[in-house]
Give the backbone structure.
Amino acid sequence: MTISNDLFERAQRLIPGGVNSPVRAFRSVGGAPFFVKSARGATLTTADDQELIDFVCTWGPAIHGHNHPVIKAAIAAALENGTSFGTPNPYEVEMAELIVQFFPSIQKVRMCNSGTEATMSAIRLARGFTRRDKIIKFAGCYHGHSDSLLIKAGSGALTHGSPDSAGVPASFAQETVVLPYNDRAALVEAFATYPEQISCVIIEPYCGNVGFIMPDAGYLSYLREITARHGTLLIFDEVMTGFRLARGGVQELESIVPDLTTLGKIIGGGLPVGAFGGRADIMDYLAPLGPVYQAGTLSGNPLAMAAGIAALKLLTELNPYAKLDALGRQMQDAVMEAAQAKGLPVQMPQRGAMFSIFFNASPVRDYTTALQSDAKLFARFFHACLDRGVYLAPSAYEAGFLSTAHAGAAIDRACEIFDQVIREL
Ligand code: KE4
């Protein structure tokens, strides 16, 4: 019995599924999850002292690698002054000033404690500001687990959504329209079907929760144009892509100005933080100024702010984006060369420090084509890599993440292992 197995047995007695977030349970790849006792740089150390090269990076936050000394020191310094005040504190002001520097579309910002809180609050704000109830989201995009967003496409292309989880009332699902990603005609039809009823469109501008999928050329600018034309707010959910693909996220890469942006992950430097922001005229609808209520006991927590400020300042100092993209391309070359040699159909979309490996003969451009990938083969690939010391996201439909700490030995070793594993699949 390994220590991880023993911990998992104990955990399952008291924690549903033995985990505090479902994807960690390895249900889609099989087997039992390992437990981690420490992390540093690109490496996780399991409870059984196995060292793993980590391509999950705690689902995005660890862009500087785990336990970066500068972030650690910032938390330690803040800790000297206490852990939480429940009052405004200087860190919150510095964080807000940094965010608006990184994201010019954000004129005002509100801190919260997770990506879920950020998107849930942004939706409520959009509904309050527009006085409209319906929202549009896209199949395959995940925005956290608030009721209005745990909705899958309805039976008909344009009928209201249906709950994607037990416990979400059908009446809530009625207000969410789920469209195919990358499909302009579906957008036109939705706005024609629900004139002046759509409060907002929320999108992962580059998808990271159905694997990594980038939009067709021009799709995002089309989305910006049609939402503006219909008085519908455009919300870019950059919880995953913000600060990761560029300092200013996808909206910087694509030169799009959304009305609201949601942020998370990197912004907390590994501690629990979310944020949402955008046009001041919209943000001023929030309490205590306006009629849209939103709150949080630990929002703007000094320790989390100190960690996030250190992480964002490091991004400015290092400007690591070209380097991260080179690491991603090095990995893509290794995987695609081995797949070609093996005659294995593999798609590996990659941009900067995000990628996915789909076992699929055709390019993956939306939820439907993603589901045509060979998830069983991915599970075999996942475990073969894990056995050799490389940890990928435990699902065929998640994005992979790189950090600056992967440069050098870690990426070289990982590429050797990807090559070996693919040739032996
Ligand atoms: P959190 O509530 O998990 O902090 O954020 C929700 C969220 C919102 N928006 C986007 C684009 C996200 O990717 C997420 C969360 N991402 C998942 C990764 N697939 C978190 C991992 C998990 O659920 O354990």
